[in-house]
Amino acid sequence: MSTPKQFDVVVIGGGPGGYIAAIRAAQLGFSVACIDEWSNAKGAPAPGGTCTNVGCIPSKALLQSSEHFEHAGHAFKEHGIEVSGLALNLPQMLKRKETIVKQNNDGILFLFKKNKVSFFHGRGAFAGTADGGYTINVTGPTTETLTTKHVVVATGSNARQLPGAEFDEKLILSNTGALAIDAVPAKLGVIGAGVIGLEMGSVWRRVGSDVTVLEGLPTFLGAVDEQIAKEAHKLFTKQGLKISLGCKIGAITKGAKNVTVEYADAKGEAQKAVFDKLIISIGRVPNTIGLNAETVGLALDERGFVAVDDECKTNLPNVWAVGDVVRGPMLAHKAEEEGVAVAERIAGQHGHVNFNTVPWVIYTSPEIAWVGRTEQQLKADGVAYKAGTFPFMANGRARALGDTSGMVKFLADATTDEILGVHIVGPMASELISEAVVAMEFRASSEDIARICHAHPSLSEATKEAALAVDKRSLNF
């Protein structure tokens, strides 16, 4: 048996939380190993986790490609661009997506090498304790035994299965299968009107699918500000997404080439729909399979998450956990922030993550982005507030882009004017929200944003105008 390789820090999982934690720990002078088992189609290492391989990155690639296709078929004519013989080359679209994924995989491996992080391709699991630290076994393409003082668990999450409708990634799809459909389905069903459901539904609608989204909750995007969610629902419905709320899913039956879904609609009436493909996007569950948490007594909570405190410490000394496998929003950028914070805490620094200023984004068209509290949350908490909105239809840059849907909304404390939340539905909302995040981190007031000079013409002027509208002095609407 070979001698175990020793490290100061071992990170289990190479997704956004894991690889960032490994790099930051290495920057701080520790000897670091990162273990990740993702492989590409050729069996080569594919670090980056769900985000890079079957989540954030490939979905954005397909969203961009499908949006180009829709623009070429519908919007270019208005710009004086005539397109004839428009055709969809789906294999090329998927190939481009895979190329982008591989570029990101290779980029992470390059960063490991640059920062002297030792990478091990395989599944990492606790094997026991040793010399005041821990022994970690790596199995898979690489077989190794590592010893370390500190362990960072960053094993991510998996798609939640619907009982009786397990994923086969051929007819019943998770996010993984939804990103690899090899022919445009005539009829596509989506169970769950959350981020993944809406994004994947949008991709396939744009390239020709008749898409029906079935949502169990009676409200659309309940976590989003109600005014913004209503505007988004109106826009998505106008685009052709068929969204049914308050559905109670019954039997799901697979045929040879289709899937039948029986459900009760919001009125309680029995319905039946037959789809060529069915995407199930009803949330995600923490991934602790094969971690061997019980071997060392690592505590999991009642939902299966690794139990941590506010600093991402587990019940075990020098064992930390970050990202989707712990409490908090399942967002790649939240995982990255926790990864950095944990590495800095290991070094005796004061890593910091502010959950109140973590931005959320849905990359549909129009995009939806928000940070801070919603209007309904402020009402429920009894907080006195002021609100200001500004529509993109009154923004010169949005008109020039040909995309004037949506609005920017500011919520500010009625007494102090401190910004409590910013909510956007519209073009490039994912980029515009960063100004609000910065402002809220510095506890800025809506007046601060209203007084800052914004470039003209730019979409960001809508942010300034919404801030002005809090004091009812918007200049362009």
TrEMBL record:
Class of the enzyme per the UniProt entry, highest EC level: oxidoreductase
Pfam short name (any one): Pyr_redox_dim
Cofactor(s) the protein needs: FAD
Binding site for NAD(+): G192, A193, G194, V195, I196, G197, L198, E199, E215, G283
UniProt-listed Gene3D superfamilies: 3.30.390.30, FAD/NAD(P)-binding domain (3.50.50.60)
One Gene Ontology cellular component annotation held by this UniProt entry: cytoplasm
SUPFAM superfamilies: FAD/NAD(P)-binding domain, FAD/NAD-linked reductases, dimerisation (C-terminal) domain
Signal peptide: none
InterPro entries: Class-I_Pyr_Nuc-Dis_Oxidored (IPR050151), FAD/NAD-bd_sf (IPR036188), FAD/NAD-binding_dom (IPR023753), FAD/NAD-linked_Rdtase_dimer_sf (IPR016156), Lipoamide_DH (IPR006258), Pyr_nuc-diS_OxRdtase (IPR001100), Pyr_nucl-diS_OxRdtase_dimer (IPR004099)
GO molecular function: dihydrolipoyl dehydrogenase (NADH) activity; flavin adenine dinucleotide binding
Catalysed transformations (reactions): N(6)-[(R)-dihydrolipoyl]-L-lysyl-[protein] + NAD(+) = N(6)-[(R)-lipoyl]-L-lysyl-[protein] + NADH + H(+)
Main location: cytoplasm
Top-level taxon in the UniProt lineage: Bacteria
Cofactor note: Binds 1 FAD per subunit.
The keyword DNA-binding belongs to this UniProt entry's keyword annotation: no
Residues binding FAD: K60, G124, T155, G156, S157, D324, M330, L331, A332, H333
Domain FAD/NAD(P)-binding: 7-339
Keywords, alphabetical: Cytoplasm, FAD, Flavoprotein, NAD, Nucleotide-binding, Oxidoreductase, Redox-active center
GO biological process: 2-oxoglutarate metabolic process
Catalytic residue list: H456 (proton acceptor)
Disulfide-bond pairs as recorded: C51-C56
Family: Belongs to the class-I pyridine nucleotide-disulfide oxidoreductase family.
Any further remark recorded for this protein: The active site is a redox-active disulfide bond.
UniProt xrefs under PANTHER family: DIHYDROLIPOYL DEHYDROGENASE (PTHR22912:SF224), DISULFIDE OXIDOREDUCTASE (PTHR22912)
Protein name from the UniProt record: Dihydrolipoyl dehydrogenase
